[in-house]
């Protein structure tokens, strides 16, 4: 073989080797990506199963609690974070962590109760009054406590409240007309014609709110949702240390016990949806439903308690909150039927909040109207479960709405009404 031929053969050999190396590198990279995809999908499946298992653990606790008593308080096992964490520590997760929290959905104002279902044509005056008081307090709180908000005169305040509340009624009622609104509400409310002119446009539902975020789509909500341009750093101290919530709402804000100590009880990082629920439908005949609008005073936050009662009955709402806080400090209330203790520092007596009628001893109970008393309940059947799974730096949160059925004298069971991941 001549020198030229040997040179050509060597070049061809080197070319083939280069091509093979390139192919091998490409195959290696592809295999690596496939391995990463497999690991990612495997971890996603593990996270999903872990997070969902948290909801089932919560249901087991709710069933146990339902079998033990017929009231629901933040002293119950489902609200005992230490006990929940101890149960989670016993789970055989080789890797990853799981955190579960349970909140009482009945501690919130029922948005869908603002219109009387099943007919869905006329507004509920009792619920309308709750919303007026709640929104008014929210305005007073933010303007007095947060310097970034300008003070509103009485006219602007009334206009904002009526616009949002009446627009909710128009969103809920069963038609795009003035059958419910009338002249008084039509000046403030909004039907589909208003929303079609927005960018992007959308329709008024003309029925119950179907998902939590839908409340934010109602005309007038923006007035109450504008966050302060600057927040002062705020530390929340718990058993697991401090958490800085400077940059926005606390992820776990909904349903938390009151952290604010002012006369309104609002948390600066919480928004209106944190105090409101769209759940609570109960059967009302064949293929029909209604919302009773009742609120569990054992778990409701202070702004909700204050909104439930007339201004002249404000002392009763504050007493409920103080007495409940005292019982929750150590969650060691007296046994049922025990003696009532003397008043403590808070001005609230020692009461057993596990008793269904413990609030009857509150100042002003006899002065409450029949409508106000009908709003009160001390047991719950709807709960919101937040289950957070963490694995290799990835986090997945499952949020479940759980309905508990039965009770102390009946077979207790739970079912998931809605499960979402984020």
From TrEMBL:
It comes from the Bacteria. Residues 227-264, 327-350 are annotated as: Disordered. InterPro entries: GspK, GspK_central_sf. Residues 231-245 have a biased composition (Basic and acidic residues). GO terms for cellular component: membrane. This is Type II secretion system protein K. GO terms for biological process: protein secretion.
